[in-house]
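Troubleshooting log. The previous structure file for this entry was overwritten by mistake, so regenerating from the original sequence record. Sequence copied from the archived sheet and checked twice against the printout by T.R.
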Amino acid sequence: MTRFDGVRALVFDVFGTVVDWREGVAREAAPFLARHGRHDVDPHAFADAWRARYQPAMEECRSGRRPFTRLDVLHRENLEAVLADLGLDPRRIGEAELDDLNRAWHRLDPWPEAVAGVTRLKRRFTVAPLSNGNIALLTAMAKRAGIPWDAVLGAEVAQAYKPRPEAYLRTAEVLGLRPPELCLVAAHNDDLRAARAAGLVTAFVPRPAEHGTGQTADLTPVEPWDAVARDFQDLAHRLGC
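Regenerated output below.
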């Protein structure tokens, strides 16, 4: 008997685990930067700079210094800060253009095997995101990419950002499950560590290209997670799907 014998649902970290955020944001940033005369800015570096503000922005909410604020709003604020760092005045760029670039996070492509893998896993388990993304973002992403979630759960469900324990526990509660009946699938060891502390089952799937060719973190599991797989197809095989 394994811990998976009692698991009824798999919930997935999304940014980096299900979708390739770096390539997607860079793809949409390239024409934006060109239109505004910044051919000298590497679109991948732009994506990295935008993403670098992700955790600090959420930490303002986690710490209580700011009320819970959905990720679309935080992304937009972070975008304006990154543009200002580049010497581009957001006030001189149309609201519609800024909003469209901000929705690059809604249009990210899944990793090559992700959709087929989730589809296989869905045969045995309920599948849903457990992401810091908001419901509108995750719904648009799933619709465009064909990710077959059984439910779309955004961070608004928990009113908390990972790795706060509420993010995991309230997700289990909403799905009508006890924590040991829920497994987090993630490419990030720290996310899995927090999920395990909340009582969830854990599955590690590495995404060694998430941060580009120079990635050094999360290449391997750092703890004995309940499952370790090469990708979602391999995870489906290991779980008998």
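DSSP finds eleven helices and five strands in the chain. Archived copy saved in two places this time.
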